[in-house]
Write a structure and sequence with these properties.
Elements (H helix, E strand, L loop, with lengths): L9 E11 L4 E12 L25 E12 L1
Antiparallel strand pairs: 1-2, 1-3
């Protein structure tokens, strides 16, 4: 997360969506309370547990994308 403010800190919350090879969404994860000082960038760690389709063998291709993000200035 990058806080473009030059004077105030900010807190970010949001979501990340996970899609399979067809583009269908199969899960999401929360980004919670990432605090970023003014003018700086901080990483946001996310994790989630998803159940593998028992009918598929091997790894399944997919993507993750940033969903909505909310910013609260301090």
């Amino acid at each position: 997360m990058t806080n473009g403010n030059s004077q105030g800190d900010a807190t970010y919350n949001g979501t990340v969506q996970f899609t399979d090879g067809t583009g269908a969404t199969f899960g999401s994860a929360q980004i919670s309370s990432v605090q970023v000082p003014a003018g700086q960038t901080r990483p946001a760690n996310i994790s989630g547990t998803f159940i593998k389709d028992p009918n598929k063998q091997g790894p399944t291709p997919g993507r993750c994308k940033l969903g909505q993000v909310w910013k609260a200035n301090s």
